[in-house]
Amino acid sequence: MMMSFPMSTLPLSLLLLFAVLLEPCISFSTNPASLRLPKQQQTSSQLSLFNFPSGGGGAKAPTSTANRDSAAINAIKSALQKPRNPKCPLVECEFPALAALNKLGDGSLRSATEAEDANIAFASKLCSKVGSPFGPKVNLVVSSSASRSFMDKVQKKVKGASICSVKDLASTSVSGTSVFLTPSSKADYQEARKLAEGGCPTVIVNALFKDQKSVPESATMAYFLKPLTYNSQVAGFLVRSYPSQWTVLDAQSTVLGTFTDAEILVPKTNTPDLRASVRLVQKSADEKAIRARSMQ
């Protein structure tokens, strides 16, 4: 007999493990026997997030963890200064926590812990940039389902921020900017929305188990990075670095198309509809495969 447990009772490390199993990246394929990328591109290194040229223009694929973090933090700061909806300063960022994308789906607790540590490291950088000893106060809020060991880890690694759990917000007077680190429950999202709608700048970092009602359409997606795979290889990205438009890139960081919020967001949500981006990357990959075959 299969047993089930409420998500809110599970430790955060297991929630992270389940989340990375559910959706490491978007993938698609045609008949692999008829259309293949050149042999020199068929390597496991293609599952590394940073194994691509940065490209030019406003949209770029990150070339390192530091490069990605810098882009994400700058976009978040821009969104906090001028959100899409001034009445709801709720800002979101979403990206793969680990450069080795294959680790996001390998099912190991070790990889889940590495992703957890990477998210904490990013939150630490973010808190240091959106606040200062002489500037606005910064609160780092962990999920109501976070374990004691996770809270201890956050308190050890994150400096310069007031750290609390979502469970403590009801009895805490909150001011300044609040950063919600990997929220995963309905209560987490409700509290983030409540703070933002009350006028407090609020940032959601790499939300887990997000459904269409978790983050309202009034929120601003500041930074978004989604690898798109083709025949088990990363063939492109969907990138958003606020205030720039959503941009689809191929593996060489060539721009394949751009979208506005109105064009790409699922109605009444802050979540992009990936289908058009997938089609653009698939078409580009197919055309490259055909050209490669014709040259053989």
How would you describe what is shown here?
The chain has 296 residues and is an alpha/beta fold. It is built from seven helices and ten strands. Strands 1, 2, 3, 4, 5, 6, 7, 8, 9 and 10 form a ten-stranded mixed sheet that branches. A hairpin with a 4-residue loop joins strand 8 and strand 9. Helix 1 packs across helix 3. The longest helix has 22 residues. The protein is globular. The protein starts with 11 loop residues before the first helix and ends with a helix. The N terminus is likely disordered.
Low-confidence runs of at least 5 consecutive residues: 1-46
Count of DSSP E strands?
10
SSE run:
HEHEHEHEEHEEEEEHH
How much β-strand is present in the residues?
15-25%
Using only CA atoms, what is the Rg?
Answer: 19 Å
Mean pLDDT value: 82
Distance between the termini: 56 Å
How much helicity do the residues have?
Answer: 25-40%
Number of helices: 7
Oligomer: single chain
Which term fits the overall shape?
globular
Q: Could you give a short account of the major beta sheet?
A: 10 strands, mixed
State the secondary-structure class. Answer: alpha/beta
